[in-house]
Specification:
By secondary structure, the chain is of the alpha/beta class. The mean pLDDT is 98. Helix content is 33%, strand content 20%. The longest helix is centred in the last third of the chain and has 15 residues. Bound molecules: D-xylitol-5-phosphate and zinc ion. The site of zinc ion (ZN) has 6 residues, from β2.
Length: 217
C-alpha cells in the first residue's frame, strides 16, 4: 500500500516542511492538487509550484490536475518534473482526446493517470486501464479537502480491482477524498493500492499514529 499525503491540507507557508513530514511518516507519494477555477471552482497552484517541490523532496510527485484542457496542463507539469500526472476523464471530450492527453503527458517523461468523479460510471474508464499508470477514484466531489467519504466509491474500487486483475493490467488504484483510518481500511479491503489523505493527516499532533493507521501498522 502506498500513502500519498495531499499538500492541499498542509501549511502553505512551509511547504518544504510539509514534504519532509510526509517522508517521515512513511509516504511514498506526494499528492499535489492542481485546480484551475474552471473545472472546479477553486484555484490552487500552477506548474511554478514544482520549483519548490523539486529541490525539497525525493518522494514520487503525484500531480492531480482538476483542470480544463488537461493536455496543456499535463504537458507543462511533465516538463517541470512531475512523475505522475492524473487528469480527469470528464475534462476530455472523447477517447481520442484522452489518448492525446496521455501522449502529451508522456512526451515529457511523466506517467499518466486518469481520474473519475463520483457520478461517473466506472465502466467509462475501462478503455484507459491498459494505457495508464493509475486510475484515481474520487471518493468526494473534486474541488476541496475535508469532505465526507462517499461509500458508493467502494463498489467502484471492487469493480476496478476485478477488471484489472482479470485482464492482467499493470494499473494501480488510487482513492482520494475523505480518507481516514476507517475509510482507508475499507478502501484497501476493496482493492485500492494508493490512499490519498489530506485533512486527516496535516494539522494533527498525532500525524504519525494517523499515518500508521492508514498503513495498517
Ligand atoms: C480534492 C482533492 C483531494 C483533497 C483530499 O479535490 O483532490 O486530494 O486534498 O482532501 P481530504 O483528504 O481532506 O478529503
Ligand atoms: Zn487529489
Amino acid at each position: 500500500m502506498i500513502l500519498a499525503p495531499s499538500i492541499l491540507a498542509a501549511d502553505k507557508a512551509d511547504l518544504p516542511g510539509a514534504f519532509k513530514l510526509a517522508k517521515r511518516i512513511g509516504a511514498k507519494y506526494l499528492h499535489i492538487d492542481i485546480m484551475d477555477g474552471k473545472f472546479v471552482p477553486n484555484t490552487t497552484w500552477d506548474e511554478s509550484l514544482m520549483d519548490i517541490v523539486n529541490p525539497n523532496t525525493d518522494l514520487v510527485k503525484d500531480v492531480h490536475i482538476m483542470v480544463e484542457k488537461p493536455w496543456e496542463w499535463g504537458s507543462r507539469f511533465a516538463k517541470k518534473g512531475a512523475d505522475i500526472v492524473t487528469f480527469h476523464l470528464e475534462a476530455v471530450e472523447d477517447f481520442r482526446q484522452g489518448l492525446e492527453t496521455i501522449a502529451a503527458i508522456e512526451k515529457d517523461g511523466a506517467e499518466a493517470g486518469i481520474s473519475i468523479k463520483p457520478n461517473t460510471a466506472v465502466e467509462e474508464v475501462f478503455p484507459y486501464l491498459p494505457l495508464v499508470k493509475l486510475v484515481l477514484v474520487m471518493s468526494v466531489e473534486p474541488g476541496k479537502g475535508g469532505q465526507k467519504f462517499i461509500p458508493e466509491s467502494l463498489e467502484k474500487i471492487k469493480t476496478l480491482r476485478h477488471h484489472i486483475d482479470a485482464n492482467g493490467y499493470n494499473c494501480l488504484i488510487e482513492v482520494d477524498g475523505g480518507i481516514n483510518g476507517e475509510t482507508g481500511k475499507m478502501c484497501l479491503e476493496a482493492g485500492a493500492d494508493i490512499l490519498v489523505a489530506g485533512s486527516y493527516l496535516y494539522g494533527h499532533e498525532d500525524i504519525k499514529e494517523r499515518a500508521k493507521a492508514l498503513l495498517g501498522k
